Amino acid sequence: MPEGLIALNSECINNLDLSPAQTVIEKLLNDGAIASCEQQLRFEIDYLRDPTDPRELSEIPEVRLWFIRLDACYPWMPFLLDWKAGELARYTAMLVPHQFNRTEGIQYNPEALEIFVMQKVFVLTNWLKSQGIPSQSRSQSMAQLLGYELDSAFFDLIQ
């Protein structure tokens, strides 16, 4: 398996088995390589379903539950996700209620997205600081990618 790829299958999802992610993340933590893997991780999800099932993966309760469990263990996971490849948007869809629009794509519930973004900003700011990694620009970039502008003065309140 290529480095930076977390492969998930139906068995691990249905059993809420986080070991594919834990193996990758714990190795990074143990090697002290967490900072060098910023925005490097991707998920490859192979979830068996009926070929006529029109749902996106983020609409399947079992898949969402697996990601909720992952987020509970690694709430700073957005730091590691490959944002350019769409992993942050997909991860957010796993955790935030949304609908799909054929012309406009994913439409997050606005209040739920705002709560998610702010919670992640608080988590990332604290976690990055504990890792000795500058946090403000990273947190601002994540929020901006999800449609929120955070003023620098906001970070003075939470530092």
How would you sum up this structure, described in words?
With 159 residues, the protein is mainly alpha-helical. Helix content is 48%, strand content 11%. The chain contains 7 helices and 4 strands; from the N terminus they run βααβααββααα. The chain has helices spanning 10-14, 19-30, 61-73, 87-95, 110-130, 136-145, 152-158, and strands at 5-9, 42-46, 98-101, 105-108. The strands form 2 sheets. The chain has a two-stranded parallel sheet with strand order 1-2. Strands 3-4 form a two-stranded antiparallel sheet. Strand 3 and strand 4 form a beta hairpin. The protein is globular.
Question: Would you summarize the structure shown here?
Answer:
The protein is mostly helical. Helix content is 48%, strand content 11%.
